[in-house]
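Why does residue order matter? Because the sequence determines the fold. Keep that principle in mind as you read this record.
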Amino acid sequence: MEASNDHIDYDLAAKYLAGECAPVEVERFETWIDASDSNRAAFEELRALWNVDLEETNVIDTDAAWRTVDSKIDFSETASTKTSFKFYRIAAAIVLLMGIGAALWWSSGNGNRVLESGAEMATLILKDGSTVTLSPHSRLEYPETFDAQTRSVALNGQAFFEIAKDKEHPFIIVTDGGEVKVVGTAFEVNTRDDNMSLTVEVAEGIVEVSNKNLKNSARVSAGEVCSISKAQTEIEVTDIVDAAPFYWKDKTIKFRRTELKQVVQTLHDLLQLDIQLESDSIEGCELTVTFTNENPETILEIIAMTLGLDLTKNNGVYMLSGSGC
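Structure:
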């Protein structure tokens, strides 16, 4: 590996970041990093890409990874595109280790970068320290570095944002349905609601949500959800009543004095479980419990034990029975 950005061994770089290098390879790569400022800058760019954290890892062909990234790109072989080519080649090397089809990166026409998640979630740490977790099949466009006034990104799909605090530089998420403006907080933005143009659910802090023409806005606090109608005529803020508002991200379900009838409906919607209650007398039994990434049958067993019920399964259908509460 030479001290020139044009001679980066991308496969070795990806192995280095994955912790799969032999000692001699580690020494070789770190020598290359220290050889020049441009080399170190190239490595930092690669490491920023590496922050995309995917759940599935598959062994695939390097050329196949490159072809997948290349299919997203439309550029001619000119001197001005050589830097972009190196960027895409880095992406291909990382796709090699992290699983083809899970996420792709490319440059938009205005010079911003684009991260598109595939069948799995993808997590990106931005240069300001903010973290964005994309749900499957979502798209985030973001600059390599933010400008002096604001931190602005564009979202299509669903994402959970954990924003690094910076009172002097508000963070803005632009969507087709409106804008979300924050200083530092944690919240979900969703442009996929069938009935709403935009929904924002806040886990921590306060956010400001505006409709598409920025004429109407609302402040949304932790524990609240804001919805903008398809017609852009109203903005509604209500309490979050969903037991698992961020389930796609953290696999957590929280029941707080929730009636068993609603518990069953929630588990059906989230986990596609077919659950029946033997009698109406147990529908009103209240449950307070939190599940995080639990096996579906374990969840049902805990519910049955907590409420003093019996759990049986027949042909894929779960039955809860007993006198219970």
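The chain has eight helices and 20 strands.
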